[in-house]
Amino acid sequence: MYYYTYNTHILAAAGIVGILVIAVVLTALLAVLVLPKHKDGKLPAFFQLLFDAFTPKTLLLEKILQVLNVFFSLVTVLLGLVLIFQGLFANTTLLMMGLLLLLLGPLLCRVGYELILLRIMQVKATREINRKLSFLVPEGAAQAAEEEDLSKEPEAEAPAAKTPTEPPRAHCPSCGTWYQEALGKCPVCGRAHEKDES
User: Fold this and answer.
1) How far apart are CA 116 and CA 120, in angstroms?
2) What is the distance between the alpha carbons of residues 101 and 84, in angstroms, rounded to a whole number?
3) Alpha-carbon distance 179 to 185, whole Å?
4) Cβ of 171: how many Cβ atoms within 10 Å?
5) 181 to each of 2, 12, 166, 190, how far by Cα in Å?
6) Between 142 and 190, the higher pLDDT residue
7) Are the C-beta atoms of 56 and 35 separated by less than 8 Å?
8) Which DSSP string do the residues of the chain spell out, in sequence order?
9) What confidence tier does 9 reach under pLDDT thresholds 50, 70, 90?
10) 119-145 per-position pLDDT tens digit
11) Beta bridge partners of 185
């Protein structure tokens, strides 16, 4: 009996280790062969489905949080009603706990839900700002400029002697955004660029 149990545990542990190894290998293959951005739209149907599943364009978390808020609010209300009912026949402690749970449970669920939702909204706003700013700076230009600044030795000459290397910029009078003049219109509000006649 002991020998059989010992073998079962060894087989279960070996199976778990095998599953983990397979998961690591498949993750590496997906990360290299399927998930790079340049592969989007160029994959066979099954791999495109995997790409779409693992690189979401919308946040599913909002709906999940909403459902969890409703679920936990209902649980606290129902549990509060059960405690009130039991308190009527048993003791007043259960009655008071039921009333508190009935009143404060949904309120605490809602506050927790809204705090988490605020954080999600902050992440969404940051993603949207980054998306809009990507129109202002060419891809890779900021990183190349940063690497160039780090690789240069400090120069002895005055900053005024340097020649500007960035393209001319325009200011949108409508929304106040600075953008590259070559775009021809504001990437944020879409207003056409107006050349100064001076």
Assistant:
1) 6
2) 9
3) 8
4) 13
5) 79, 64, 11, 13
6) 190
7) no
8) -HHHHHHHHHHHHHHHHHHHHHHHHHHHHHHHHT-SGGGTTSS-HHHHHHHHHHS-SS-SHHHHHHHHHHHHHHHHHHHHHHHHHHHHHS-HHHHHHHHHHHHHHHHHHHHHHHHHHHHHHHHHHHHHHHHHHTTTS-TTHHHHHHHHHHHSPPPSS-GGGSPP-SPPEEE-TTT--EEEGGG-B-TTT-PBP-----
9) confident
10) 988 988 888 888 888 777 665 555 555
11) 192
Amino acid at 180: Q
Query: What is this structure's pTM?
Result: 0.48
Distance CA(180)–CA(137), nearest Å, equals 8
Q: Which residue has the higher pLDDT, 70 or 162?
A: 70
In Å, the largest CA–CA distance within the chain is: 97
Assigned token pair, 96 = 């008071």
Q: How far, rounded to the nearest angstrom, does the alpha carbon of residue 77 sit from its chain's CA centroid?
A: 32
**Per-residue model confidence (pLDDT) at position 176:** 79
